[in-house]
Fold these 3 entries.
Entry 1:
Amino acid sequence: MAALLLLPFAFSAAATAPVTITSDDVRGNVGDTVTVTLNIAVEPPKLGQTMDSLQFVLEYDSAALEFVDIQEVYQDRINILGAQYLCSVTTKTGAVAFAAAATDGASGSGVLMHVRFRMLSAVSTMLVLKKVSCSFVTANGTTQDRRSVGTINLGRVTGQSAPTTIAPSASAPTVTQPPANMATDQPRFPVSEVTLAPGASPTAEPEKAETDILAYIVFGLFIVVAILICVVLTLMIVRRGRNKASAKFFEDDEDEAPEPLETPEEEDLYEDTTPLEDEEEEEAEEEEEPPIQIVRRRKE
């Protein structure tokens, strides 16, 4: 019940925010510097009050944007809705802290500041104001109200890739064709003529005959090298075969040992040999000689 009773007060406080800050969507090419305009509307909670202080933290995607500056800030001063404020700007990666204060504040609506960013990538990101707070003062300089607005979502900043354009070359030849109805002695198919731009020098093209001769020379050298390689490989194979054959021949000689000679027996030698002539003569003399007679004498 208590929560339900407090809802109308909450809605009324939200509807009557003392400070409203907005911005439009911005697009730019990668590498360009874009400007984001922040608009402000100040509605003091009481009559006769003005906004004497304002502070917030502007957060952005550091991978897509790079903070450059705030155009209205000059020597720690800024003009907001016609009133001069002393201000300070503190930057860090992805955030810009802004604080401003004045003796005689301002009210109404208009441009708060122009913030410049450099586009780093082709993505879409949102700017956010955090820790937004302000204070109001009466004409006699007595501060009466301090308000905390909280977080405000601003517009989106979208990067896009720059289109690539190819500049025409000054030395590029222009091609012109004769009219189709013009009577000429040339063949009936269209013939294009090349007109060089002023200051351009014609480029000599290699003749077809020279190109063909060079191709034939290269092809002939390739064939000669191939033949030499085949001859060398053939000689190496033949030499290797001969070495293997000679090695095998010596191995076969070592494997086959000579058989031992057979010596004939003595009987066979004597049987097979024929008597010499001297032996035959001696045998004949022995046969002719008379036998020796042994005579024994008795002693008388």
Entry 2:
Amino acid sequence: MFAAVDLGSNSFRLHIGRYDGEAIRLIKSARDPIRLGAGLDAKGNLTVSAMEAAIESLARFNAILSTYPLSAVRVVATNTIRIANNSAVFLPAAEAAIGYPIEIISGEEEGRLIYMGVASTLNSNERRLVIDIGGGSTELIIGKGQQIERVESFTVGTVPQNLAFFPAGRITAEAFDEAILSARSRFEDAALLFKPQFWSAAYGSSGTVRAIADAIIKNDLGDGQITLKSLQSLKRRLISFGHADDIALTGMKPDRATAIAGAVAILIALMQEIDIKIVHPVDAGLRMGVMWDMQWRISKVDRRDQSVRDFQQRFAIDSARAEQVAQTAVNLFTSLKPTDESYVGLLGWSGLLHEIGMVISHSGYHKHAAYMIENADLPGFTTREQRVMSRLVLAQKGNLRKVQDTLSSLDFSKAVLSLRLATMFMHARITLGEDDLHVKMKNRIDVDMRKDWIKHHPTVSYWIEKEKDVWDEVGVEFSIKLNT
């Protein structure tokens, strides 16, 4: 049984589902329309009241989660928490309230997870366009069957559109036209990549798109489907109400009404700019995609593995060297008995990518690699995971002052030591046997290594002494013992 929690800009949502061998069946859903995106102040910070409302919501979700025997839970945060300047202040309290780590995912990763959720529901091999209009961003994804071919995330969503063009809920014809033109300007550069020749059907996956579809059907607007004709009819009806508080559409909840004008403007802009004739609403998206991702990880199908391999191939990395470093580092780290097993995978992937910066320059390649890993679009990885990998790769050589603030975590220090030793032995052309090296690390580092390595690999003595100096510099005693 899995749970997926989506911390969106419009609402926080929760899904609990069970995999029955073929599909994930929903058992419980919850939604809290807290409109976090509207809680950003002029400086891009979440206000105290917005954070308090979010934490109260997460505590309510925690109470729901605690009543189910869950095998895995993932909490993902999207645009508002991505862009909030004070998200680092908010996250610790938010994680304490929900009781689980919160993963900030990129817009592109959000799009991929949305597509995975939609594809699992449609279960066909057609080539399709998926549209997700969220509170803070809009994602466009093209794929064929289960395969994702193109993902773009645009920082235009219902919350900023409503705040900018429908302030205090006022809805006018002039404001609607301006909102549509503004949205079109955000999509026009990428529009050619999403034209109808690249797909056979278009789907809208967000709750907002489903609400638009319901409004059209239940209020006999246009032709009864999500087309430009019906959207224009809905637009005119919204203008006739004049204010979000006065919207009286059959089947529309009041909290949906506050976001509907911005959503309609964005959808009209998309259909005009991309030349979409009809959008089919589908009841699946991000949360379903997150649950499928958890199911695949349990089944040993981890998208992050392929993501790293693709990144290696793109930059022509020497896979043999990378594989040796990754395997050696993981073996050393495991022997150090870490308490946080999540570092095992992150360390292995860091090893596979440790030389990626050489595509830019051999001088300071570890710095280039760290930047690339932290900022690259790596499917399957969260922002936090990429930041940890970036720090590990940055620490693979040179002094440790640059990561000294993170060395307070013993497991991180063990991972750094493992990666540094692994790269050292790879450069010295030493393949470690089972009993060739013994390392201990607690309050100090003890390294027990073969004496004959010095004879056959003379640079090892130089590098291991340098390693001792590097750790001594950050206050960690480093002892070397040579055995026969």
Entry 3:
Amino acid sequence: MVTEVRKDWADLWHPTKRQIEAHNAVKKYKFLLYGGAVGGGKSYFLRWETLYLLIHFFTEYKIRDIVAGLFCEDYPSLKDRQLSKIRKEFPPELGKHHADHKEYGNCFLINPGYGSGVIAFRNLDDPSKYMSAEFAVVAIDELTKNKKAVFDELRHRLRWPGIPDVKFISGSNPGSIGHGWVKKIWFEKIFEPGEAEAHLFHFVRALAIDNPYLDSSYYLTLEGLPPDLKAALKDGNWDRFAGQFFNEWDRTIHGECPITKGQCNEIIGVDYGYEKPSSVGWYKIGIDGKLTRYNELYETGLTYTALAKKIVEMTSSPEDVDYIVSDPAIWNDRAHHKESLIGESGAETMQRIFNEAWGVSKVVLMQGDNNRAVGWGRCREYLKPHKDQHGQVTAKFGATRNCVEFIRTFPDLVFSKTKQGDVDKTGEDHAGDEFRYVVMSRPETPTAPPKHHIPTTEELIRKKVRDSLTKKKEPKIIGM
């Protein structure tokens, strides 16, 4: 017998107005992110919406034994956020929780009158475990606790014969290792080339104030948090969040910085990657020592030859370039791509191409200082806000609006869990590393000479940088 979805469904789970908004959005969109701050009832929404969808699919398509997956990053989180609550909340008339079902393991099995659907409770310590699985619904609690590879893996598992409108639903706060990619997709609407379902991604914001079931003391607790935590957890500000490495970042100060008169000389920063993106930034040096990042290249799959040629193409005034600074690893990377000469390192390949384009030793590729802790500290100094002579708040570093990848990834860097004073290297730190090499190549004071040059070209680089800082040039206004 087919039992219709209960007419009193809202009375059964008592959703908030914001949860009803999310429930209605699920009908229209395939990929829903709900929440964005603490206290909005994300976990509650996920389990009840998953239950609803299974019964709805049974009613709509007359298909039994449909499986949904409800995921957390690990089992303790799954137990605390979901299992302990489901045992109390889901009424026996709808089904029963099984700690170790012989076929589905830890699951909630819906009663036959509602279709015998299954909510399989799973953790994401190893997503490859689900390579052969299929789910009509994928629900992930705290999506930002996971890397994008987890989303990609489960997205491929999102299919069920006879159900054309399978659903991916998730909830999350700002922060953690997945903050950057979640923000990129659901907030900034930046997708991979060829993304055919971009129009099916949707975000419903929910704050603690949207949840009438919270005790008043909870709001007072949120009000008392430090500014960065309060911005993220109470206000749902995805530019400020718990665990953020550079909480000095302010988009209005550092991410909307115009190029001004007097900024003539340039530095180009490079962080090489092949499977991961290569990040290249073009920096103008102000007469006051301010760095302005005004152009960028952020791309995967580039050999050293291809990368060097792109840098040449994108450098409009090579005569203004003081030097190019890159990650030191490329000096030891030899004979790994077809275009290189025998035994030539990546750095030597790039320098050869620069020489061919601009003349020998006109623009020198120098080895970056990879002291990460010191480097990040120096970057932090460049981000500190201060008032200029006109009383306007500024900083020693800024990026123009077209540096979208830097503006996207740099403020999303989080603290390493294993190395004090460092960022989590499993995140998108490529643009950050490139910026760090540039900052470390600069003198600590206006009178100090540049440090950490390649020993074989030390005198040449010192002279070139010193000359570039002291020679007189007509100021230019650099067009965007």
